[in-house]
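Researcher: Structure for this, please.
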Amino acid sequence: MEIIAPWESGLTDPAELRSDYLLVRRPHFHLRGNSLFWMASKTPRRQLSEPETKFWNLMQRPASVNEVRAACGDGADAVIREFLRSEYCELVEPAFPGDRRRVLVIEPHADDAGTQHRGYHVAPAARVRFCNCDDGKPE
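Model: Predicted structure, token format:
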């Protein structure tokens, strides 16, 4: 899987969100009531509306853009784009392209993995992309 860059996600492009792409919430945030908190912060980052809370809860597992549209109705695209802009979630390809080499880095902390896989040596013409994954639970 690949995390889509903002210019590919439709955020700066008026193109429609790709319906089969997956929305994955960032693990740095957690919901208490209708308040979205950054990690161990005592101050909420955002008070979620009812549609935003529904969307956040839908992303307990990766949810396709189509699933979100079906569950959240007409305002779904606006909520999706706002969450992508605010970096509360990521837009991810639904399948891993077969022509890419896969690299698995397992580290106790996401920042450790980030420094490790960026040190991976790749030939300039190689088709390699990296994706960080974790369990999505605040520590």
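Researcher: Any notable elements?
Model: Residues 6-92 form one domain. Residues 5-15 have pLDDT under 50 and may be disordered.
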